Amino acid sequence: MAAFRLSNNVIGALNLVTLLLSAPILGGGVWMATRGDGSECDRHLSSPAIALGAVLMAVSLAGLVGACCRVTWLLWVYLLAMFALIVLLLGFTAFAFAVTNKGAGEAVSGRGYREYRLGDYSTWLQRRVESSKNWDKIRSCLAGAGVCGSLQGRNETWAQFVAADLSPVQSGCCKPPTSCNFTYGGGTRWGKTARMGSADPDCDEWSNDADELCFGCQSCKAGVVATLKKDWKRVAIVNVVFLSFIVVVYFVGCCAFKNSRRDSVYRRAGGWKQAGYA
């Protein structure tokens, strides 16, 4: 009975923590989806947040009630859900490492920032970003987030600008490619008159309109992919740690389930005395 109480107490405590964590995730997702002034970014992120929060809450409740109330079938459902989660995390982590193993920004001579080419990255990431349906959402998200706002307000000299450390999105979306040889006019203003026969199609896409800039450029898509790659790599590393934790919880849950079934057998047999443990 001591082993039963210990394993069930551990499972109950762990699931109580998970249940408390799921509430703000679910609440935040609902808030992003329903607030009137939400951007496309918020609405795009709300569905995964709601789904994650709901799944965590349901699984945590099953584990908590099953462990504390000795409900064997709930523990069985909990273990099945945990096993499915482990398999999904394993698959996603392996996939994330696979699609982020290639592609990097190119150093530009005399510049403090890097520039990015879409073809350098994995085909899967390219297709996800190049899809017109996805890109329209991403473009709206970038515009709503004001990713170029910090550059638009700057009154820098050319020397100060080229020494700046721009993010991949800023480098790809907020300025024309270096190969265009445009004249820098401060902030996000560039003069096309200095173009010297560049073959880069992004040169024709560039606009000084604050709502356009290079949001239609391949370099902008490449900057987004570079950012996704970095984020996915971080998520994959976090997943390895989280997966290790989940595996430990799963094995503790297996012990709790085994002990719960044993306890049920003893109770159906009329108690410990009738089971021969007088």
Q: Enumerate the strands of the largest sheet in spatial order, edge to edge or round the barrel.
A: 1-2
The ordered H/E elements are HHHEEHHHHHEEHH
Provide a count of the helices.
10
Which residues sit in consecutive blocks of at least 5 with pLDDT less than 50? 272-278
Description:
The protein has 278 residues and is an all-alpha fold. It contains 10 helices and 4 strands. It has helices at 2-34, 40-68, 72-99, 123-130, 132-145, 149-152, 158-162, 168-173, 202-205, 218-268, and strands spanning 106-107, 114-115, 183-184, 190-191. Strands 1-2 form a two-stranded antiparallel sheet. Strands 3-4 form a two-stranded antiparallel sheet. Strand 3 and strand 4 form a beta hairpin. Helix 1 (2-34) runs antiparallel to helix 10, helix 2 packs across helix 5 and helix 4 (123-130) packs across helix 10 (218-268). It is elongated. Mean pLDDT is 79; it is low at 272-278.
Write a concise synopsis of the structure shown.
With 278 residues, this protein is an all-alpha fold. The chain has 10 helices and 4 strands; from the N terminus they run αααββαααααββαα.
